[in-house]
Amino acid sequence: MSEQGPRYPRTPHLPNSPGVTADDLRGDWADFAPRSDAFVATLKMDGENTTLHRRGMYARSPDGRSRPWQDRMRALAAGVCPDIPEGWLVCGENLTVPHSIRYSRPVPPFAVFSIWEADTCLSWDDTREWAELLDLPTVPVIYRGHRPTLDGLHQAFEEYTDTEHDEGYVIRDAGSFEREDFAHRVAKWVRSGHVRTDDAWPARSA
What we know:
It comes from Streptomyces nanshensis. Helix content is 17%, strand content 25%. With 206 residues, it is of the alpha+beta class. It folds into 2 domains: 9-45 and 141-194; 47-139, D-amino Acid Aminotransferase, Chain A, domain 1. The strands form 2 sheets. It has a 6-stranded antiparallel sheet with strand order 3-2-4-5-6-9, with helices on one face. It starts with 38 loop residues before the first strand and ends with a helix.
């Protein structure tokens, strides 16, 4: 594990996710947070998975190289990171540069989707409270409530947004949980045909 923090966990796909590939993790809905009845589904923003910590930031992995297109994100992080408690990680989407989707609506430069105190992911309510203290927005919520059906969850997504252009959604246990339980507490749905980008995406999106 890096001194900065671990690599962000891989998020498994929901069973009905059409964007799953052979290399992706697949989740079992029957085994998803079986002892919880409080869930939050959020819009899956199309950016660069980025982690902020007290001493700086990194994208996806703490061992990843710094990239020129991250300059705006580094400038934002410089004003936020000193206020992050020691040993905490603030994870979200870097939206300062277009990725696969060019949003027609305004989006923030960075949107928080989880905050970690060591290996504990904070509850959604605590995540929103800390994000507000750090003056950062969270990703949009499309559903909050008791355990949904997969059809009901997808209906909430369709009612919230344009399913032809938004990437998908993420559902999580609304309570706190440990890193080792991540694969059974967080899952995603990604639309079919969503562009998978490589290291050259910033140049293509300029």
